[in-house]
Amino acid sequence: MTKQKATTRTRVRHTAQYRAEALGLAERVGIKSAAQQLGLHESQLYTWRKKAEQQANKSEAEQRYTEENARLKRQLAEKEEELAILKKAAAYFAKNQK
C-alpha cells in the first residue's frame, strides 16, 4: 500500500481590472481563444462574464429603485403639504362657525 502525497494548489486571485480586461479580450476574440491566451479555463471566463452581467443588472435595478424612492418621497412631501393646508382650513372654518 502506497501513500499518495496530497498536492495542494494555491488559488490565484485575479484583480477586478484583470477580469475586466480578460472579458474584453474574450469579447473580441472569443472565450476559447482568450482562455488559451491567458492560461485560464474557459469556465472561469464564463463565470466572470456571468457575475459581471449580474452586477450590471443589479446596478440597473438599484438605479430604478433609487429613482422610484425619490419620486415617492416627493409625492409624500406634496401630500403632507396638502394635508397641512386642509387642517388649517378645517381649523379656520371650525373657528368661524361658533
From TrEMBL:
InterPro entries: Homeodomain-like_sf, Transposase_8
Keyword Ribonucleoprotein applies: no
GO-annotated molecular function: DNA binding; transposase activity
Entry superkingdom: Bacteria
GO biological process: DNA transposition
Coiled-coil parts of chain: 49-89
Pfam family, one: HTH_Tnp_1
Alphabetically ordered keywords of this record: Coiled coil
Family to which this protein belongs: Belongs to the transposase 8 family.
Protein's name according to its UniProt entry: Transposase
Organism: Isoalcanivorax pacificus W11-5
Lineage: Bacteria, Pseudomonadati, Pseudomonadota, Gammaproteobacteria, Oceanospirillales
